[in-house]
Write a structure and sequence with these properties.
mainly alpha; about 75% helix
């Protein structure tokens, strides 16, 4: 794998994450303020979005198993970034164009659009991350590929964080606040650019690890997936760590409610992303000196400490909050790289034991955790927002600020500490895995 291929794959991830992070960061801000929902509507919307995310997470396994069964002249996974680009762009634009009408109609349209968007995005995301396991056969090269891709994803988050609010304001036709129309126009631009870049994952990559010409029967693949104990321990840890997504889900709302201006989200987001970028660039090197399991344990302990630091700092000083968030970003960036590598290890472990590959199913587990965590974080944050009584036309009280701040500090700290528990039983032979894979592949080639 040369630098051109690694760079092209990373740029594709940058494009995909422009869209993912646009929806993750700004959908609630648009719906809470731009769609004109009442407090009751916000609470109902929270339940709807959470239910949609849970359902979408449950269907991820089916998507992964179906992706594993794909056989084309270009390989198993490369075709998906090409065929999903246009549908994702269109559905993303729809999410930010809620039609006029009754609140019930708005909620119905939002729910339908979100379900379709989520399923389509999964159909692109599972193959994209599965490619990290088949583009190269060298473990060190795979680590660099994941590091570059995660760094590009963070850059996508950075761009969206920095330009999102100002771009929506600029498209709103004057004034200092973003309107529903402004959000819609900005979304259409981001969606088109992001998906155009995403197609590079098809045009510049090559699948070097080959699947068997005929896919495993569906039941056999499902049995192999359910028997993958290390994967399920890793997924359990990831679900328990859902609190780490509270900042991503509610950051724009926090900037509005706690600090009084959505544009503060640019400052806080830049601090978070700065820390994450440093970590995604350096984590592959750190992983050369320790096991991924041990690295993950250190990361989760550090994450908990960073949330406690954020709580201790409070929200009286934007500068101090930004510093604490930068520390949090260091651990979040390291988490994203290490988790992706560990998911790939569980897929390789299955091949070492059985000779069959189920990359799609394993990386569907990664998207499952991401979406379930987003659902849990959305539900908890949305219920906190409703509980403190916030709505777009209500004055902001000290109680509102304090309640929302707790949801971004103490709750995530407790969450990531719980995520340490399943890792105690995680047992993939990381150091011996390359040799085990080489022996299995040599055996298969000799047949």
């Amino acid at each position: 794998m040369d630098t051109r291929e690694r760079l092209g794959f990373a740029v594709a991830g940058f494009g995909q994450n422009l869209i993912y992070n646009w929806v993750a960061l700004y959908l609630l801000a648009y719906l809470y303020d731009g769609a004109g929902l009442s407090t009751r509507g916000i609470a109902t919307l929270t339940v709807i979005l959470s239910a949609c995310k849970v359902w979408d997470a449950v269907t991820d396994l089916l998507v992964g198993l179906l992706v594993d069964r794909t056989r084309t002249r270009w390989g198993t996974f490369r075709i998906y970034p090409l065929i999903t680009a246009v549908p994702i762009a269109a559905l993303t634009a729809w999410l930010f164009h809620v039609p006029a009408g009754s609140e019930s109609r708005k909620l119905l349209v939002i729910g339908l659009a979100y379900v379709l968007w989520s399923i389509t995005f999964t159909t692109s995301d599972v193959p994209y991350w599965s490619l990290t396991n088949v583009i190269t056969t060298d473990d060190a090269s795979r680590s660099r590929l994941v590091g570059w891709a995660r760094t590009a994803a963070m850059l996508g988050l950075a761009v969206v964080t920095v330009v999102g609010g100002p771009l929506a304001v600029a498209f709103s036709g004057g004034g200092t606040e973003a309107t529903g129309t402004g959000w819609g126009r900005a979304t259409l631009l981001v969606a088109c650019i992001g998906m155009a870049l995403f197609t590079l994952a098809f045009f510049v990559t090559t699948e070097r690890v080959q699947h068997r010409p005929h896919p495993l029967p569906f039941r056999a693949a499902l049995r192999q997936f359910t028997a993958n104990k290390p994967l399920f321990l890793l997924l359990a840890s990831g679900v328990l760590c859902f609190g780490q997504m509270m900042i991503q889900v509610g950051g724009a709302v926090v900037a509005t409610v706690v600090f009084g201006d959505v544009r503060y989200f640019t400052v806080l987001g830049a601090a978070l992303i700065g820390g994450m970028l440093v970590a995604t660039l350096t984590t592959p090197r750190l992983l050369r000196h320790t096991t991924r399991r041990r690295m993950m344990q250190v990361i989760l302990a550090g994450l908990a400490a960073s949330y406690l630091l954020l709580y201790a700092v409070g929200f009286t000083s934007v500068a101090l909050v930004a510093g604490a968030i930068a520390v949090n970003g260091l651990f979040l960036g390291a988490y994203s790289v290490t988790q992706t590598m560990m998911i790939g290890d569980t897929a390789n472990y299955v091949e070492a034991l059985t000779g069959d590959r189920i990359d799609g199913a394993c990386f569907a587990g990664l998207t499952f955790v991401t979406k379930l965590n987003s659902a849990l974080a959305t539900m908890v944050f949305g219920l906190v927002v409703a509980w403190v009584g916030y709505q777009s036309d209500a004055p902001v009280s000290g109680g509102m600020r304090s309640g929302i701040w707790l949801s971004l500090t103490l709750l995530p700290a407790a969450s990531v500490l719980l995520g340490l528990l399943p890792l105690r039983a995680y047992a993939v032979p990381e150091r011996d895995l390359p040799a085990l894979l080489a022996a299995r592949r040599a055996e298969a080639a000799a047949r």
